[in-house]
Amino acid sequence: MSWGFLRDLLSGVNKYSTGIGRIWVAVVFIFRLLVYIAAAENIWKYEHDEFECNIKQPGCENVCFDHFFPVSHIRLWALQLIMVSTPSLLVVFHVAYRENREKHHNQKLYKSPGEIDGGLLCTYLVSLILKTGFEIVFLVLFYKLYNGFKVPRLVKCDIRPCPNTVDCYISKPTEKMIFICFLVAASCVCIVLNLSELSYLIFKYSIKCYLKRYIKKHQ
């Protein structure tokens, strides 16, 4: 598939983000999307064809592969990238709504439609919470589906129609484990960045409200 739409989305969100948000966009684009396209996608491209069992019993190999890899790693990574990026559309839509509202009333209603304040601040915070939530959910899902982030060289399968316990071998296990660890680490960095940006915005808004009350009180 073409990842141009995700690149355009991240580029569009970048101009409405804080400094921490721009770092998040860079990490997603460089260390996740580009790594996925350039390397990871090719490593898992023929994972089913390269999965071998030491038996020729019809159906045994397919059943064992389905048991140990219920969902393809690469498709799950792709779904994760899409899910953690789409909450940013909320911010883009909110800014577009502001711009359309100003155009409809033919007057300046906001200092800047892209400035993070008021309703846009709430939308931005919701998008950060959703992105963090999706990251955590997918990491837990990966861990549960594959019993951790390690890729074994050998798995033993005794599921029917296999007549007995057979040995099945996974191709390029070391290379796959390296990329899984890299992508998991990048995902964890994104979670830290999202939480840092969330804390920063809440702290900034709290200080702003406190200063307003303080000035109003002393006036």
Automatic annotation (TrEMBL):
GO terms for molecular function: gap junction channel activity. It is a multi-pass membrane protein. GO terms for cellular component: connexin complex. A connexon is composed of a hexamer of connexins. This is Gap junction protein. It is found in: Cell junction, Gap junction; Cell membrane. It holds the Pfam family Connexin. Its main location: other. Residues 42-75 form the Connexin N-terminal domain. Residues 134-201 form the Connexin cysteine-rich domain. Belongs to the connexin family. The gene is GJB7. PANTHER family: CONNEXIN, GAP JUNCTION BETA-7 PROTEIN. Keywords: Cell junction, Cell membrane, Gap junction, Membrane, Transmembrane, Transmembrane helix.
